[in-house]
Amino acid sequence: MIVADWIWAVTIAGFVLIIVADLILVDSRPHVFGTREATKWVLIYIGAAVAFGIGLIFWQSPQYAGEFFAGYLTEYSLSIDNLFVFVVLIASFAVPPELQHRVLLIGVVIALILRTGLIVVGAAVIASFLWVFFIFGAFLLWTAWKVWRSGDEPLPVEGADPAEPAENYIVRQIKKRVPSTEDYVGHKLIAKVGGRRVVTPMLFVVVAIGTTDLLFALDSIPAVFGLTQEVYIVFCVNAFALMGLRQLYFLLYGLLDQLIYLNRGLAIILGFIGVKLVLEAAHSTIDEAIPTFGTLFSLVFIVLVLLITAVWSIWAVRRHPELAPPVPGETNG
User: Fold this and answer.
1) What does residue 162 show for φ and ψ, rounded to 5 degrees?
2) Model confidence over 85-117: pLDDT tens digits?
């Protein structure tokens, strides 16, 4: 797949334009994001991703379009698991409801920049050392086992204390080196309080979200590379998945506790891609007679696993409501 520099420039400019439009159309007036508004924007972003995939059919080939859709579904479904962490972070930093969308937007931009660095590094390694697929495959199989086991454990945080935010290393270092305030000053990252400039909790939470997402990318980016080795497609898959993740947060917040078997489905998908990577590496380096999974089979497999997981989860919770754990940040009674 040959992608000219000007196409890369137009693509990146397009995503930047989307971010700017989001700030102007949605965030110019901070407000509580409702389900109807979230649904509208989720459909817009999914529609944009679908249109991009269809465009790939005519611009490149159905093969690349299939790789994009398989990667997008995988990345988007893995990103849903991120929402649990976002809920924890937003609750622990006590982000006001009207500022949550802005927090997620800036956090996602940071995450996309950091992920782009990982994608470039991953592509360079794969181009030089094809056998690295064996390592990626083994890593995904190990991750799948860990994710499957996590389905037997409760959510890590069932209620967050705003006085003790879920800080990571970077946030702690910022706090040590710059003056800060515990109070939000609108959507400002830096504000003037008591005659001096201080960092607000808004900066801490967006940094926490952006950098924490990078840990999830260590799993998801190798998974997408297992479905396509085209850097352009991997970048677009991550961009579309992350850009649509913010609205999905508000849409699925009340449903997170019903997706009790989500980890099972994600584990199966990661395990499948891990096997796919190992087979492809063996096919290329050992014997071309070793079979591999095609793009269409991978796409159908991922769709079926996601559908079965969602239906199974909702059906089980409706029959046995006690199976649903409390969503982090919510209180009972």
Assistant:
1) -60, -25
2) 777 777 778 888 888 878 888 888 888 888 888
Instruction: Give residue 30's identity as a one-letter amino acid code.
Output: P
Identify the CA nearest to 246 among candidates 156, 112, 94.
112
Q: By CB neighbour count within 10 A (0-12 exposed, 13-18 middle, 19+ buried), where does 37 fall? A: middle
Cβ distance 328 to 158 under 8 Å?
A: yes
Pair of tokens at residue 166:
């879920």
Q: Of 221, 310, 235, 308, which is closest to residue 273 (Cα–Cα)?
A: 221
Q: Compute the distance between CA of residue 178 and CA of residue 132 in angstroms, rounded to an integer.
A: 41
Over the stretch 179-230, which tens digit does the pLDDT of each residue have?
A: 877 778 877 888 887 778 888 888 888 888 877 777 767 777 888 888 888 9
Sketch the domain layout of the chain as residue ranges. Answer: 5-323
Tokens 């611009």 label which residue? Answer: 59
Contact 276, 146 (CB under 8 A): no
Distance from C-alpha of 256 to C-alpha of 330, rounded to nearest angstrom: 12
Q: Report residue 218 CA to chain centroid gap.
A: 11
The pTM assigned to this predicted structure is 0.74
Confirm if 95 and 166 have CB atoms less than 8 A apart. no
Residue type, 33: F
Measured at the alpha carbon of residue 219, what is the angle toward residues 230 and 156, in degrees to the nearest 5? 155
* C-alpha closest to that of 101 among 236, 241, 245: 245
Dump the DSSP string for 76-121: HHHHHHHHHHHHHHHHHTT--GGGHHHHHHHHHHHHHHHHHHHHHH
Please name which of 248, 224, 246, 226 lies closest in space to residue 236, comparing C-alpha atoms.
Answer: 224
pLDDT band at 158 (very low <50, low <70, confident <90, very high): very low
Check if the beta carbon of residue 105 is closer than 8 Å to that of residue 27. yes
Amino acid of residue 139 = F
Say how far residue 331 (Cα) sits from the centre of its chain: 26
| Pick from 11, 76, 92: nearest CA to 246 | 76
In this structure, which amino acid lies at residue 206? V
**Residue 44 near residue 243, CB atoms below 8 Å:** no
Beta strands in 11-64 (DSSP E): none
